Amino acid sequence: MDSGKDRLFRALAHSTRRRIIEMLAEEGPQTYSSLLRKTGLATGTLNHHLEKVKGGLSSHPILPLSY
Known about the structure:
Layout: H1 4-11, H2 15-27, H3 32-39, H4 43-56, E1 61-62, E2 65-66
Antiparallel strand pairs: 1-2
């Protein structure tokens, strides 16, 4: 069975995902374009890592948007 802890550890398993999470924690919500610029990742690569983060962490609404 896939526990929440397993999903969290998988999300944190890659240094790029940890860097994205650190950026969000330190700088607050970011747009996709801002994350692309700051990470220097290709669109597909960033999308892949954000999907992994999304699967391991919970999201919460910020204004009318959800990050």
